[in-house]
Design goal:
The chain is α+β, with helices and mostly antiparallel strands and 413 residues long. The protein has helices spanning 18-31, 81-89, 105-111, 118-121, 149-155, 189-201, 244-252, 294-306, 353-366, 384-390, 393-406; strands at 11-13, 35-38, 54-57, 64-67, 72-76, 93-94, 128-134, 140-143, 164-171, 173-174, 178-185, 206-214, 229-237, 258-259, 262-264, 281-289, 311-317, 339-347. The structure holds flavin-adenine dinucleotide.
Length: 413
């Protein structure tokens, strides 16, 4: 996973059951040791690692059970999005997670979960229908809309810090196939602006994100674009197959240089596994914006062009089912925004880390994502002022009240 300053836990616990999790939680409390939980290990702030305390590593609890009749998937607290998606896909069913199979379902769902099905089905947390949680005192409780509703509210968007989730129950939706994949264009501002606007205006069955980024040396991209700014979208149409072409026509109207969008099974959207970020130093900043106009789009492309290494401005189109949930119904308070905008830079070279951070910080302030509301799972820092951006106002107050009632455990997010 991501590199950074060394963090050396005193104890690494690898439980197999909720009862064992409870035992570890009680033992850590009795020993006065801080504890953090590790599931998929993808935290940008490396919140699932700590110095001198207990890392409760749930990766042996990676079971997934698909209840086809009840349209519900049950994932243990250490299961990955990819394993669940493959198991559900065997029945033509899906729960929407993010874009990367190796991400842990628990970490993703606790914060939100935005990906290929979000405009159709909502965020992952909107599909959480129940959970088993080990509380800070070691008690094991069931939660859902009618059981411990305050706890259930906090688990949906509150991020880490309110119990150890040992099982998640998730709604499944029939998804026999999708039409999806990558589209790429030369770095024209109007293309970036129009493509984001087109996804926002499309039926809910089209979800997608659009990147202004430094083109990686990928074989599917023309060699002349490698290392240069490019616009790359990852789209997924999950409606009737015969309606896909109409939905995608406004994107294809801009003459993509790469069009890998094709009919496939939903699990095939995760092929390739996602980036290998082992040993990589990353910086990220996030917030919410409007659909970029041409001027903003030009500034994004210019910023990427000025980066000294891998860099991306990532625009995730919100709307659809995400926007139809009330801001107070869950602990994810950011329902009405058009676009979740993040800027990220990466380097394997520790000596380049400061330059990457400076680029991210400059781009974030230029695009208005350095302060204001933010998605907890893409935050680049975990200082109180960062976390307050994720859970502003009444959401933050209610989250603090829930933690006061049930006890706080794990690094808060
Ligand atoms: C390559 C990459 C791609 C990504 N793509 C997307 C995407 O498309 N959409 C999206 O929404 N997000 C995405 N994310 C962000 C991702 O949702 C967050 O990083 C998420 O927190 C990762 O969860 P994890 O379980 O893998 O990580 P971890 O580091 O294991 O955990 C993250 C946080 O959750 C806590 N936690 C983990 N498991 C539990 C549990 N069972 N009970 C209680 N607390 C727990 C940890 O203590 C930590 O604070 C991506 C991240 C990366 C690195």
């Amino acid at each position: 996973m991501f590199a950074g300053e060394a963090r050396v836990p005193a104890v690494l616990a690898r439980p197999r059951t909720a009862a064992e999790v409870s035992g570890v939680v009680r033992a850590a409390r009795d020993a006065g040791l801080p504890l953090t939980v590790r599931s998929g290990g993808h935290s940008y702030t490396r919140a699932s690692l700590l110095d001198g305390g207990v890392v409760l590593d749930l990766r042996l609890m990676d079971g997934v059970r698909i209840d086809q009749e009840a349209r519900t998937g049950h994932a243990e607290g250490g299961a990955s999005a990819g394993a669940y998606t493959a198991a559900a896909g065997e029945h033509g069913l899906a729960t929407g997670f993010g874009d990367t199979g190796t991400v842990g379902i628990a970490g993703l769902t606790l914060g939100g979960g935005i990906g290929f099905l979000s405009r159709r089905d909502g965020l992952t947390l909107d599909n959480l229908v129940g959970a088993e949680v080990v509380l800070a005192d070691g008690e094991i409780v069931e939660t859902g809309p009618d059981q411990e509703p305050d706890l259930f509210w906090a688990l949906r968007g509150g991020g880490a810090g309110t119990g150890v989730v040992t099982r998640l129950d998730l709604r499944l939706t029939e998804t026999p196939g999708v039409v999806g994949g990558i589209l790429a264009w030369r770095p024209e501002p109007e293309v970036l602006s129009d493509v984001v606007a087109a996804i926002a205006a499309a039926p809910d069955e089209l979800s997608g994100m659009v990147n202004a980024m430094v083109a990686p040396p990928a074989p599917f991209l023309p060699g002349e674009l490698h290392g240069k700014p490019v616009i790359m979208a990852l789209v997924c149409w999950s409606g009737a197959p015969e309606a896909a072409d109409d939905a995608l026509a406004p994107l294809r109207a801009h003459a993509p240089v790469v069009d890998l969008v094709a009919a496939k099974t939903y699990p095939a959207m995760f092929e390739g596994g996602g980036p290998d970020v082992a040993g990589v130093r990353a910086a990220i900043a996030t917030g919410f914006t409007d659909v970029p106009d041409r001027e903003a789009a030009a500034a994004m492309i210019d910023a990427v062009g000025a980066a000294s290494g891998p860099a991306v401005v990532n625009l995730r189109v919100m709307g659809g089912a995400i926007g139809r949930v009330g801001a107070d119904e869950t602990a994810f308070a950011h329902r009405g925004h058009a676009v979740m905008t993040s800027v990220a830079g990466m380097t394997p070279d520790p000596e380049q880390e400061a330059a990457v951070r400076a680029w991210v910080s400059d781009a974030a302030s230029r695009f208005g994502v350095d302060d204001g509301p933010a998605y907890v799972n893409f935050l680049g820092g975990d200082a109180p002022e960062d976390l307050a951006r994720a859970h502003p106002g009444a959401t933050g107050e209610r989250l603090r009240a829930v933690r006061a009632k049930y006890g706080a455990i794990g690094a808060p997010a």
